[in-house]
């Protein structure tokens, strides 16, 4: 749900403090040192949207921006989020001519990146090989950030494979000596303890996304009249994804309905939101639903 497609561009409302944290992280990056920022929150709260804003602002400063996202169906694929973020970009660079590049580095990176796998292993590295692979990725990030600061965004880490999480934790403990900002998006309580422990130090800036207030929700739903916006908020709470889905229902549908329970029966998606999504999917042509 964090990345649910919407026919209209997602809007950022009520996130001024969180945006200030992102700007501060980019300022620290411009000062030349490595940094981490975590964006945490429940499904649909806007983690991906906030990371999109970070990417846009970093690009506006002229930084190199690379992104990867974990996927639930790739949990058995080692280093999948790193492959998503780095592999195509590294394959497109002429790194062999760089003075710090050598066959040993390429072989160690081959444990992580398929584009270099002919020089390395198959991604199923044993402990000592993993340590060398972690060190090699740190060297690679430093190399990529040598001329221009690098922003690396890794999203949906609650679905990440163990090898990717282990590598993130290793880099958090031994960050590259280069201007590299690593931004991580995940649901709290659903990532490995080793990652949260590694990010507990002062180097990591933590951004927690909370639900919107009713006034902030009204800004997000400014295409609705006051009664309709209030009805949407009663059913969807302050979750931006829920609000956007309910806000696209035909006017009056919620206002005329009964008051909702305070939470969904199973702690999941509120019934009105589930109904709105089902109705939207049902309106699509069959080919689009497949």
Primary descriptors:
44% helix; alpha/beta; elongated; disordered N terminus; 12 helices; 10% strand; 290 residues; five-stranded parallel beta sheet
Helix content: 40-55%
Radius of gyration using CA atoms only: 21 Å
Helix and strand string, N-terminal first?
HEHEHHHEHEHEHHHHH
Shape summary: elongated
Main sheet? Answer: 5 strands, parallel
Helix and strand content put the structural class at alpha/beta
Proportion of strand residues: 5-15%
| Overall number of strands | 5
Give the end-to-end Cα distance, rounded to a whole number of Å.
18 Å
Q: Largest beta sheet: what is the strand line-up?
A: 2-3-4-1-5
Q: Which stretches of 5+ consecutive residues score pLDDT under 50?
A: 1-8, 261-266, 280-284
> Mean pLDDT, as a whole number?
82
* Number of helical elements: 12
What does it look like?
The chain has 290 residues and is of the alpha/beta class. 44% of the residues lie in helices and 10% in strands. The chain contains 12 helices and 5 strands. It has helices spanning 16-30, 47-60, 80-92, 103-109, 127-144, 162-173, 193-198, 214-220, 226-236, 240-247, 271-282, 286-289, and strands spanning 35-40, 64-69, 150-155, 180-186, 204-208. Strands 2-3-4-1-5 form a 5-stranded parallel sheet, with helices on both faces. α4 (103-109) crosses α5. The protein is elongated and about 65 Å long. The relative contact order is 0.15. Mean pLDDT is 82; it is low at 1-8, 261-266 and 280-284.
